[in-house]
Amino acid sequence: MKLSALTSKPKLEKIVIDDEKIVKSYGEPIEFYVYDRQGMDTFMKLASLDGEQDIATISTVIKDLILDENGKKIITDDNLLPVDVMIKCIEVTVRRLGNSITQTLGKSLQS
């Protein structure tokens, strides 16, 4: 397989938070978007985070990934999320991107 066959333009993927506590608090599931592919710099920032990092450091990295349906940043200096929603967004975003890394590495290691 040619390496070029694995390239593609990043696409927005919808993420739905339907956690019971979030739905109870806000009355419905919450949705946002992330690109299905990220640059190596973003993955390196995420990979460098460990359990000793505070939530502020993690949210600084994640806020650039949380987008609306048009690919625009939702979190800005003037627009912030409630803490419970931000924590859940961080959790599901990191999990989603982590699964992408694992799946990609797993496929390449099996070859």
Account of the protein in words:
With 111 residues, this protein is mainly α. The protein has a domain at 34-77. It is 47% helix and 11% strand. The chain is built from four helices and two strands, in the order βαβααα. The chain has helices spanning 20-26, 40-48, 55-62, 83-110; strands at residues 12-17, 30-35. It has a two-stranded antiparallel ribbon with strand order 1-2. The termini are close together.
Reconstruct the topology from this structure.
Layout: E1 12-17, H1 20-26, E2 30-35, H2 40-48, H3 55-62, H4 83-110
Antiparallel strand pairs: 1-2
Helix pairs in contact: 3-4
Helix content: 40-55%
- Radius of gyration, taken over Cα atoms and rounded to an integer in Å: 15 Å
Q: What amount of the residues lies in strands? A: 5-15%
Query: Count the strands?
Result: 2
Summing up helix and strand content along with how strands pair, one would put the structural category as mainly alpha
- Assembly level: single chain
| Overall pLDDT level | 82
Total helices: the number is 4
Largest sheet: 2 strands, antiparallel
Contiguous low-pLDDT stretches (5 residues minimum) are: 101-111
Task: Give keywords.
single chain; 111 residues; mainly alpha; 47% helix; globular
Question: In a few lines, what is going on in this structure?
Answer:
The protein is mostly helical and 111 residues long. It has helices spanning 20-26, 40-48, 55-62, 83-110, and strands at residues 12-17, 30-35. The protein has a two-stranded antiparallel ribbon with strand order 1-2.
